[in-house]
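Feature request, filed as a ticket because there's no other form

It would be nice if the structure record came with a short human-readable summary line next to the tokens. Right now we just get the raw output. Example of a typical job, pasted below so the devs can see what we mean:
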Amino acid sequence: MNAQPGAPLLDARARPLHDLRISVTDRCNFRCVYCMPKEIFGRDFQFRERSELLSFEEIERLARIAVALGVRKLRLTGGEPLLRRGIVDLVARLSALKTLDGNPVDLAMTTNGSALPVMAGQLKAAGLQRVTISLDSLDDARFKAINDVNFPVSRVLQAIEAAEAAGLGPVKINTVLKRGVNDDEILALAEHFRGTGQVLRFIEFMDVGTTNGWNLDAVVPSGEVVSRINERWALEPVTKTEPGETANRWRYTDGSGEIGVISSVTNAFCGNCSRARVSAEGQLYTCLFAGSGYDLRALLRGGADDQQLADALSGHWRKRDDNYSELRAALTPGKRTRIEMSYIGG
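Raw output as currently delivered:
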């Protein structure tokens, strides 16, 4: 079925495809306990061979076709995307793409920040617009325990400053909250980033994959987060600028900026989800909680032309009916296969 130029590409629930998240590597230099626990992803773990990963030419081709189908935002993820050799070149290739209305594609990256002090300027010059940096604690000992590779929190704070200085802002800070691990730092984190122009976002601990030991008792509901902060500094809701935004935004009434909360567990946003994900070796996933993907690499390397690729991508999206977060409570624990977050990015 051919995609119609200018017509929105809608899935089975009438949700448009606006965002494409592209994992460029399955490797990471952290072993965060909620994402790539060391007992699973240890020294003997077999990551993908380089030949299995999509080349930059293949990624650029897929992105160009997706943008022609209506995608407006591209986000580079991993693993840790800055571990992919030549990543600045890929950024330059993707930043040249134009959306259907002729504007530059919105190009961002999610990173642990470890390489940003060295690379932020190069990435900005190549056309990267923003970064989102993961930071789960301001306490050095706790942060080292979470990343499990003894990486100091001071270097992530330096990365945030380097990104801002390079013009990759406003920087978004993603904090995954886990009951009994870091939920006692909600106010400390909020205070640290108030007035900086950086946007702190609290993410509910999600049951992505099967290796992170998820259980509902470990989830800190976003409503609780907002309530705690509001008791200390008054907040008011901010209207979303686009229907597909994952975060609910709140701003400080004293003008000191805003926070966001991402509530996949307690307030599912499946109804307006406009995101698809491509794994490092070219599997297309239409849900973060998917158990299997659609092999785009086989088409890319099997001689498919651009129209065939566009038809495959659009046809797969039109059949999409995913709404895992809305159904979570009714699903039997342990009976559903889910892809790991480190494989397709957050």
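Something like this underneath would help us a lot:
Residues 19-344 form a domain with the TIM Barrel fold (CATH 3.20.20.70).
The chain has a mean pLDDT of 89.
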